[in-house]
Specification:
This protein is about 40% helix and about 15% strand. It is built from twelve helices and nine strands. The longest helix is centred in the middle third of the chain and has 14 residues. It is elongated.
Amino acid sequence: MVKKRMSIRELGDRARGEESTTETPVKERAPRAGAQVVHSNTRASQFHTPQSMMLPLPVSKREIKMDLIELDPTQSFASPINPRNQTLLSLDDPEVQNLERSIRTDQQRDPVLARRIKIDGEVRYEVIAGTTRRFVCEHLNQIVEGGFKLRAWVGDIPDGDRRAIAISENRDRRDLSAWEEAIDAARYCAMDDNHYKTQDVLASELGMTRPKLNKLLQIAKIPQYVIESLTSPQLLTQNAGAALASKVGQLTSKQSEALKTFVAASKYDNLLNLQKAIQTEIEKPKKKAPVFASKPYVVRDEQGVRAKITRHRTQKDQFKVDLFGLSEQDESWLVGILEERFSGESSR
């Protein structure tokens, strides 16, 4: 049998063209905790004859055999080398919803790309390309009676080719969000082998211009909790991401914590609304140092009056501090009292 040389995209096209049309009825079962029952009349097809193709490797510059199989999604995991952030995959994302609907109705037409590895003596499948499809099939496997199989092209893909294959497949199908691309670029620049490279060299190796790399490195500073507040990371474009990164960079640590709590309670399907929430946090009036009245501010403890603070009679922005019986060991105590006062957390 002569094996045809195929690209990653063509592998999926070939699989669609040769897949069996035999359908297996699906019985409904009680959903697992937190799951909804899917009323489906189809499931992934069972293949009775093996299928194989030759995949050209982008880095190794050779070809490897890929076999088309079906596997339990729970035996697979998303490759850590894939720049798509797996924690951002959500059924709230309209694009993921469309994919779930398509696979549930028409079966998984495009197999993922994976390799076998052993973990603790057991065979597992590292999904290098197609992690969103893996996510959807894993979800369907939880809610469809009898489970739902994940279709995959499986072969001995070398370590050095994984990243290039994952990036190529992402661009062909569902491109990375600006934030995911930014995190991937920042991670690449931070690699030990790249510490002494100029940004021009790094940009060239990443296949982009230096201005684009600079913009992505700025976007990479946006905390993940901000991106998680969006219904889809795809809502963040590069230009909007750079502007958002600038706004987030203006937040103090306290404002960042307040914003984190605030956005965690909401999901934004519009980037403008998220930007307004951040701007509101920035524009909140900051606490000012308390204004002393004519009455002195007195610090007491069990030994009596230890300090007295009064406003200067002629210089309104200056104060007079009288200390009573303080030793050097008491200095830190006094500093703490003053910091507490000027942060507005103590009372007279």
